[in-house]
């Protein structure tokens, strides 16, 4: 018989007792109670070797799969996330995350805290964080702060991998420039970048810069039109920001949609000052590095590994070394690795062992209710190999373009699979062995979809 999770406030007092016991133990875990079994029998027994897995769900706005009806989250233990007899209903029982549209969520490395910056609307740009208490219970902690005066009410932001201390939000605005005879000169791209103290809810630093390409590129109408996904290098002295290039026709200054795709580019800034911007270019990958909803670049083994999108030769995973330059000897092409054409990385996340789970589509993807949809693959960054995870079912209506989160617990990565408006499951991939576990059932509602785990 399936077990349906409901509000677990009933267990609050038991959790407090567990916390007090833990604080007196020589194995102190910092005062955070471990997840309880949550099975509804009232015993509240702690589960060994587990962590919270927070499922995120995006409700339909006007069209199936648009996710514009708001975001709900629901937390279960990792043990229950692996149990196919468990059923999770975030749309009926979940915590509503403040956001006018799909919330931009991040999680602490241990899964005990959720960070959110509201996207658009009256609360757009508001930063809040929540302690994960299980089920629909998320307790707001610290103070709320608005970053909208710096980066707008629909900011693109990410949590840096510095021990859950810092977040970074960015924006770019553009303006065409002309000479006295109305001849097109270039497009000015002005970047704003902010760092946010996640622990104390305060602004660390904010800087604006003009981001220039080469004189030849700008004369031909190229400019940086979107930026996203900041990541720190291993030394902690440089911040990399992914970029998308667009182009105008220099003869007319009208948008050009049929043009040569240039080498992938990344903006490099000094950190923490956010000064001295420069742009580096890959000769291996072409296309954009800003990603979309999910983190697009990760630090592993001293280098930053970055996905690109819109590459005419299929998405690559690119490598930026400790010298803050692209390593053009590292040529990891997803078309070649997967044996497909037109691979497009939608989202990805590596574990600490350098093996990653990657969401992608390709030219052979079927058209579903919300567009051409995708698959999951297991990737090895060092061996430069990728293999489709066939144990996770493919459905034309399985929407991955808005996918945001992959919960990582050791070598295991948790993902959600459910077609738009249909039920599905959590799947757990052991990146070391390749084993795949079909876990808890996800209960969906009409037109809505799941956007990951945290």
From TrEMBL:
Keywords: Signal. The keyword Cell inner membrane does not apply. Residues 1-27 form the signal peptide. Coiled coil: none annotated. Residues 38-47 have a biased composition (Acidic residues). It comes from the Bacteria. Residues 25-47 are annotated as: Disordered. This is DUF4374 domain-containing protein. It comes from Flagellimonas oceani.
